[in-house]
Design brief:
Layout lengths: L5 H6 L6 H4 L7 H5 L1 H30 L4 H29 L1 H8 L1
C-alpha cells in the first residue's frame, strides 16, 4: 500500500462516490468484532466510568465547600451520579471483564 502525500492527492483526478470521500477514515470492522476489539471497547467503557467517578467526586466536594443551598444540591446530585457510575463500572467488570471468576464462584 503506497502512502500518498497531500500534493499527490491534489494532482490525481478526483474519484467518485462516497467511498472515495471516506477513504481516509476507513475503520477495520474485523478488528472491532474480534476478541481484542471487544476487549478494547470494554476497557474504554470501564475507564469512562472510573474517570467519571473521579471527576464527579472532586467537583461535588469542591461545590459543597461554599455551603450554599445550590452547592449542597449539587453535592447530592454528584453523589447520586457517582453511585450510578460505580454501579455501571461494577456491572461492566462482572459481566465482561471477569465473567470466568463469577462463574467459578457459583460452582
Amino acid at each position: 500500500m503506497k502512502m500518498l502525500s497531500a500534493r499527490d492527492r491534489r494532482d490525481r483526478p478526483p474519484e467518485e462516490g462516497v467511498v472515495a470521500e471516506l477513504q481516509g477514515f476507513a475503520v477495520d470492522k474485523a478488528f472491532f468484532t474480534s476478541h481484542k476489539g471487544i476487549l478494547l471497547e470494554t476497557e474504554l467503557d470501564f475507564l469512562r466510568c472510573v474517570s467519571a467517578i473521579i471527576i464527579f467526586l472532586v467537583v461535588s466536594f469542591a461545590a459543597v465547600t461554599s455551603r450554599d443551598g445550590a452547592a449542597i444540591a449539587a453535592f447530592v446530585f454528584g453523589i447520586i451520579l457517582v453511585s450510578v457510575f460505580a454501579y455501571d463500572a461494577l456491572k461492566i467488570y462482572r459481566t465482561e471483564m471477569a465473567p470466568g471468576a463469577i462463574q467459578g464462584d457459583q460452582h
